Fold:
Amino acid sequence: DDIVVTKNIDKIYPNGCHALKNVTTNIKRGEVVVIIGPSGSGKSTYLRTLNQLETITSGSIMVDGVTMYDEGTNINTLRENIGMVFQSFNLFPHLSVKENVMLAPLKVSNRSKVEVEEEAETLLTRVGLAEKINIYPTQLSGGQQQRVAIARALAMKPDVMLFDEPTSALDPEMVGEVLDVMKSLAAEGMTMVVVTHEMGFANEVADRVLFMEEGELLVDDIPENIFGTV
Ligand code: ADP
Ligand code: ADP
Structure:
C-alpha cells in the first residue's frame, strides 16, 4: 500500500544545477523513511518536490493515489494531505501558540471554530505544551517552538508528514524533546519522511534509510544493513 511514489524524477534548477537524478522511491503507509547524505546531495529538494514546493523537471510523483501535475489534480488538496516541518519553525510571532495551530484548519476545513480549538488543545497537549497554549512563540525555547510547528502541521490531519532537518537549528539540549515527539508519532503509525543528521534516530526509528549523493539515490535499505546490528 504505497502512499508516496516517485518515478524517475529529475530536478534541474533554472541555474542549471542538477539536484535530483532519476530518483525512484516508494513509501508505504505507516512507514518511517529517513533520508541521509552529504550537504547539497538533493535531500531537501526531494522532500520539497513531494508537496510541490519545488516542481520537477521530469518523472512523476503520486501521493495518496493522486498524480501531481495531472490535469484536474488540485495542488491545495494535495498539500493539505502533507504536513511539513522545516528547520526553522516559521511560526507567526503575532499569534499565540494555539492560534498558530488553529490558523490553517480554520482557513481551509469545514470544521467549526470550537472543534478546531479543541483539536489544537489536544495536539498541543500531545506535544507536551498544554501549559503554553496562550503565550506567544517568542516566549518559547527553540525546542518548544518546533513542537508547536509539529502540532500545527498535524492540525490539518495529514496522511504524510515531511520533516526537513527539524532539529538542526536547535541547541543540543533541545534535540531530544523534538525527536521524542517524532518517535511517538512514528509509533502511532504516521507515515513520515525525515531528512536528518541524527543517525541514532535513523537507526532506532526508521523502517528504511535512503542515502543520497550528488542528486542520486544510492542506497535504499533497512537501517540494520546500513548501520549494522548492535
Ligand atoms: P541537501 O538538502 O542535501 O543539502 P539540496 O536539495 O538543498 O541538498 O540541494 C541540492 C543541490 O541543489 C545543491 O547543489 C544546491 O546548491 C542546489 N539548489 C538547492 N536549491 C536551489 C535553488 N533554489 N536554486 C538553485 N540551486 C539550488
Ligand atoms: P538546505 O540544505 O537546508 O536546503 P540550503 O542552504 O542548501 O539549505 O538552502 C537554503 C535555501 O537556499 C533553500 O531555499 C534553497 O532552495 C536555496 N538555495 C540553495 N542553493 C541555491 C543555489 N545554488 N541557488 C539559489 N538558491 C539556492
